[in-house]
């Protein structure tokens, strides 16, 4: 992902995130009331602010019944920014300012759904959707000066700490069971903060982490032979100063940028974690393997848009990406309380959509959809919940395109 093209390549995904992945549901059922945004109290005093200096926000829907003591916390995704210019530009969007944050619809949206039929294990839990407005997976702590002389705040780490602190005061501290989740850049944030988050609770509280589409690969070469995504990550690490959240044992032997990749991060995590990812992750194929900077030829552009258009030679290249992911995840086999669901669907982020989370057309492995496998893992209903799909196009339950 070349310096000048990264933001452009991410723009569509970011704009989708700007309206929130939790958009009004498309089914015929009457939607519930949208969940209002809560702005962090005392944000400026804590230095816990968005890129433009506004307070960060989150959406809290209270649980009910036997779920009133259980909490689901989700960190929003939306790519990263690696230069002052790019980060400054995000200040005029929901990914850099709470001025643009609106109420979100939880109903009908996967793991946030309050319908017991589609979300049987978490439907009545307290649910929190933490908005993403820092550009570095809730990890940075620095600031810079934009061209117009204004300050750009890289305060993701402070946002994470302050929001968790405020939620503790709102009942999270009394939770009996907690699931800490995130999607895409928020999935990476979940991996980064997993142990710190779980350490905030008494040992008897069941705290587990769940990263959706956050297992970004350190692909050594894109289609043009460049290590462009690593270079992009390196700029994020340096600009936003994410070193503080990286594991010390990794930093003792490796470059900080390497320690920002999940491949290294998962080696040190002690808290039980579940990894949900496509082995043919559509975002990574489009932006890591085939960034616009690599100037892919016409046949690759068609393949990039829809894996169904890829020829046999191109599929072999994608299979190599799959094999890299499977190999990087081998360390999980030695972690008895971890789980994974690695399907072969051309998709990215599967927890926030009913169609992929739990529906008649959801992807299945071992005849179980994602909601069932995650629930079995969290509640210990089955042993060794580690599902890895066969190579594309072997799984007939995969939809051919990413969720809307």
From TrEMBL:
Origin superkingdom: Eukaryota
Chief localisation class: secreted
Annotated family: Belongs to the pectinacetylesterase family.
Entry's Gene Ontology BP terms: cell wall organization
EC main group: hydrolase
Keywords linked to the UniProt accession: Cell wall, Cell wall biogenesis/degradation, Hydrolase, Secreted, Signal
Compartments (UniProt record): Secreted, Cell wall
Pfam families in the cross-refs: PAE
InterPro entries: AB_hydrolase_fold, PAE/NOTUM
PANTHER family (UniProt xref): NOTUM-RELATED (PTHR21562), PECTIN ACETYLESTERASE (PTHR21562:SF81)
GO MF term set: hydrolase activity
Annotated function: Hydrolyzes acetyl esters in homogalacturonan regions of pectin. In type I primary cell wall, galacturonic acid residues of pectin can be acetylated at the O-2 and O-3 positions. Decreasing the degree of acetylation of pectin gels in vitro alters their physical properties.
EC number, UniProt record: 3.1.1.-
Protein name according to UniProt: Pectin acetylesterase
Signal sequence region: 1-24
SUPFAM superfamilies (UniProt xref): alpha/beta-Hydrolases
């Amino acid at each position: 992902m070349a310096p000048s093209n990264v933001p452009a390549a991410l723009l569509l995904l970011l704009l989708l995130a700007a309206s929130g992945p939790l958009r009004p549901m498309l089914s015929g059922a009457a939607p519930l009331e949208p969940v209002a945004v809560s702005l962090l109290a005392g944000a400026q005093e804590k230095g816990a602010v968005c890129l433009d200096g506004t307070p960060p926000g989150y959406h809290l829907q209270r649980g009910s019944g036997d779920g009133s003591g259980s909490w689901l916390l989700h960190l929003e995704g939306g790519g990263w920014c690696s230069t002052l210019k790019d980060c400054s530009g995000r200040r005029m969007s929901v990914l850099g300012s709470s001025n643009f944050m609106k109420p979100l619809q939880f109903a009908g949206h996967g793991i946030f759904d309050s319908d017991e039929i589609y979300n049987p294990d978490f439907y009545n839990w307290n649910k929190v959707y933490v908005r993403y407005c820092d550009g570095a997976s809730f990890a940075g702590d620095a600031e810079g000066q934009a061209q117009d002389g204004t300050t750009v705040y890289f305060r993701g780490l402070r946002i994470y700490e302050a929001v968790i602190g405020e939620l503790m005061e709102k009942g999270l501290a009394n939770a009996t069971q907690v699931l800490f989740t995130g999607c895409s850049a928020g999935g990476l944030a979940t991996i980064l903060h997993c142990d710190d988050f779980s350490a905030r609770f008494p040992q008897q509280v069941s705290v587990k982490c769940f990263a959706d589409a956050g297992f970004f690969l350190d692909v050594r070469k894109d289609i043009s032979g460049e290590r462009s995504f690593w270079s992009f990550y390196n700029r994020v690490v340096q600009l936003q100063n994410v070193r503080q959240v990286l594991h010390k044992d990794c930093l003792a032997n490796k470059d900080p940028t390497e320690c920002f990749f999940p491949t290294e991060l998962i080696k040190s995590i002690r808290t039980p974690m579940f990894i949900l990812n496509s082995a043919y992750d559509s975002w990574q194929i489009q932006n890591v393997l085939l960034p616009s900077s690599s100037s892919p030829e016409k046949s690759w552009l068609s393949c990039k848009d829809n894996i169904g258009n890829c020829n046999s030679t191109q599929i072999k290249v994608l299979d190599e990406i799959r094999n890299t992911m499977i190999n990087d995840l081998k360390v999980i086999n030695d972690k008895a309380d971890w789980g994974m669901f690695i399907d072969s669907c051309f998709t990215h982020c599967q927890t926030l959509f009913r169609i992929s989370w739990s529906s008649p057309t959801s992807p299945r492995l071992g005849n179980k959809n994602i909601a069932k496998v995650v629930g079995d893992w969290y509640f210990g209903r089955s042993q060794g919940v580690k599902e890895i799909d066969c190579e594309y196009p072997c799984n007939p339950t995969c939809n051919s395109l990413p969720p809307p």
